[in-house]
Specification:
Layout: H1 12-30, H2 34-40, H3 46-55, H4 62-81, H5 85-93, H6 106-110, H7 115-129
Length: about 130
């Protein structure tokens, strides 16, 4: 019998509940509108979104798990860069003159719907941290 290789990461199903609970806490902290929450999660069907929100559990796709991972990384970077949580929240919503944002806020960039925009905001903040 051949040995099966160990998975490099936990299956997405095992991460669903913890990821969704973390996301909804983050969304509450950032005071995100429902439409924005859905956009950040990759526009799941409305019924699926409300089921996740109500149950704080589910089996989101790998894409959704990836999106939540980027959002949590953004939150962590902001907490490191701005020890005052109010400052971190202001930065997220404040127009930004960095070329990456073109005068828009980081949140506006993140709400484009593309997972790549979550990635670039995370990468930008990680670079600012040094």
């Amino acid at each position: 019998m051949l040995a099966q290789p160990l998975p490099e990461t936990a299956p997405a199903g095992e991460l669903g509940g913890p990821a969704l609970r973390a996301f909804f806490r983050l969304a509450e902290h950032w005071k995100l509108r429902i439409a924005d929450q859905r956009k950040l999660l990759g526009d799941p069907p409305e019924s699926t979104f409300y089921k996740w929100k109500r149950q704080q559990d589910g089996a989101p796709s790998r894409d959704t798990i990836e999106r939540i991972s980027y959002l949590l990384g953004i939150w962590k970077s902001l907490q490191i860069l701005f020890p005052d949580p109010a400052q971190a929240d202001v930065w997220l919503n404040k127009p930004n003159q960095a070329s990456l944002f073109g005068g828009h806020s980081a949140l506006e960039r993140m709400l484009s719907g593309n997972v790549a925009d979550l990635y670039v905001v995370r990468q930008y903040l990680d670079a600012q941290r040094g």
